[in-house]
Design brief:
Radius of gyration: 23 Å
Mean pLDDT: 80
Structural class: alpha+beta
Helix content: 10-25%
Order of helices and strands: HHEEEEEEEEEEE
Largest sheet: 5 strands, mixed
Number of strands: 11
């Protein structure tokens, strides 16, 4: 029997080709990748409709409802600094995915209508984005991720930034 020897460069080509074939066939074996997180609409009506599909809701008494305001400023080094000021709301990161408590939990950050991150406190650093305008939306959520609502409308705040 004759021995076949592949030189080093040919072995690299073979490995690269096998990886490309594997990546091409992976969706057929594993199934299609999951769709991106459900987008939310910037307009109040769209936000309410899309959030209704995403999470359960906790209706709060308007007289004792939590409230929030947000501000976003350019960071001196890179990215953006998001500041969330809340009233009648407590951030409780240790209780996430646990039992709900009145006016306590965390927030969800959306950038350009797509879920970006969870927020467990008043400050968050956002990266630089592609040039142009970007909508930042922050909603208040209970420990089980249900959104707090008043009259069926989610409690949220928005800001728009312009990336140079």
């Amino acid at each position: 029997m004759r021995e076949v020897s592949l030189g080093f460069p040919y072995l690299l080509y073979l490995v690269a080709a096998a990886m490309l074939v594997g990546m091409a066939l992976a969706p057929l074996v594993v199934g299609a990748p999951p769709p991106p997180a459900t987008a939310i609409a910037g307009a109040a009506a769209g936000l309410e409709e899309d959030h209704g599909r995403m999470a359960s809701r906790i209706e709060v008494d308007p007289a004792a409802a939590p409230a929030l305001t947000i501000s976003v400023s350019k960071d001196a080094m890179s990215g953006w600094n998001l500041k969330v000021d809340v009233e009648r709301f407590a951030f409780t990161p240790a209780d996430v995915n646990g039992t709900n408590a009145p006016n306590a939990g965390h927030a969800h950050i959306y950038v350009n209508r797509e879920r970006f991150a969870r927020l467990y406190g008043p400050d968050f650093h956002l990266p630089d984005f592609a040039p142009g305008a970007h909508e930042i939306l922050v909603s208040l959520n209970a420990n089980d991720h249900a959104e707090f609502t008043i009259g069926g409308k989610p409690i949220y705040a928005t800001a728009t930034i312009v990336q140079e």
